[in-house]
């Protein structure tokens, strides 16, 4: 069982997300708070980001938001976070979120979420982030991406062992269990980063 203090949750800030995605975000936040696990996210005040943070906070948990200054200047930040970390830019935001977390869960999201997820998977492949990465595939949202990653393995653009860089869950309960049970990645496999 992993000692998980904080989970970084990547997800959409869109207010148009499907109700099932919003419900999964809320449920995940509630489960994290119940286990005393803190949230790290991008500090958005809307969408799945806000739904997750609100559920964590309502459950008595702690929520740390990491957000670039230009977003704060636009008023995009969640004002109720336990801790708000302002950073210079998007690159620093991602580095800080990774540094503060013991695992990653990706809920549905758009370009930003996909970019964050693929970058953290790449970091894990290179031995830079050994922690669990779980794709919470609500209603099959991530099926096309998962098919693309399987294709990368089939086309020998990734090694078969790299398919273990992430796990896939269909419910928040399953995602949290995988975070707690997935072993740390052996960073010595970075020697296999090149085919």
Summarize the structure.
With 195 residues, the protein is α/β, with parallel strands linked by helices. It has 7 helices and 7 strands, in the order βαβαβαβαβαβαβα.
Would you give an account of this structure?
It contains 7 helices and 7 strands, in the order βαβαβαβαβαβαβα. The protein has helices at 19-34, 47-58, 69-73, 90-100, 111-125, 143-154, 172-181, and strands at 6-10, 38-41, 63-68, 83-87, 103-106, 133-136, 167-169. The model has no long low-confidence stretch (mean pLDDT 95). Helix 1 (19-34) runs parallel beside helix 2. A 7-stranded parallel beta sheet has the order 4-3-2-1-5-6-7, sandwiched between helices. It is α/β, with parallel strands linked by helices and 195 residues long. Helix 2 links the parallel strand 2 and strand 3. The protein starts with 5 loop residues before the first strand and ends in a 14-residue tail after the last helix. 41% of the residues are buried. The protein is globular.
Order of helices and strands: EHEHEHEHEHEHEH
The order of strands across the largest sheet is 4-3-2-1-5-6-7
The pLDDT mean sits at 95
Low-pLDDT stretches are: none
- Helix run count: 7
The coarse overall form would be: globular
Radius of gyration: 16 Å
Strands, count: 7
Q: What percentage of residues falls in helices of 4 or more residues?
A: 40-55%
How far the N terminus sits from the C terminus, by CA atoms, comes to 32 Å
* Percent of sequence in beta strands: 15-25%
């Amino acid at each position: 069982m992993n000692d998980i203090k904080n989970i970084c949750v990547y997800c959409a800030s869109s207010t148009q997300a499907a109700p099932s995605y919003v419900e999964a975000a809320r449920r995940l936040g509630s489960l994290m708070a119940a286990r005393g696990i803190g949230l790290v996210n991008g500090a958005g005040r809307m969408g799945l980001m806000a739904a997750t943070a609100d559920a964590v906070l309502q459950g008595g948990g702690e929520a740390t938001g990491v957000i670039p200054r230009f977003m704060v200047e636009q008023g995009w930040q969640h004002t109720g976070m336990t801790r708000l970390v302002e950073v210079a830019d998007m690159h620093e935001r991602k580095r800080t979120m990774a540094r503060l977390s013991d695992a990653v869960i990706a809920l549905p999201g758009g370009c930003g979420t996909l970019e964050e997820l693929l970058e953290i998977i790449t970091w894990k492949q290179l031995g830079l982030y050994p922690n669990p990465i779980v794709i919470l595939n609500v209603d099959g949202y991530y099926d096309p991406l998962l098919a693309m990653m399987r294709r990368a393995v089939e086309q020998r653009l990734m090694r078969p062992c790299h398919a273990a860089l992430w796990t896939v869950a269909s419910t928040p309960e399953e995602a949290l269990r995988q975070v707690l049970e997935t072993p740390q990645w052996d960073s010595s496999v970075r020697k296999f980063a090149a085919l």
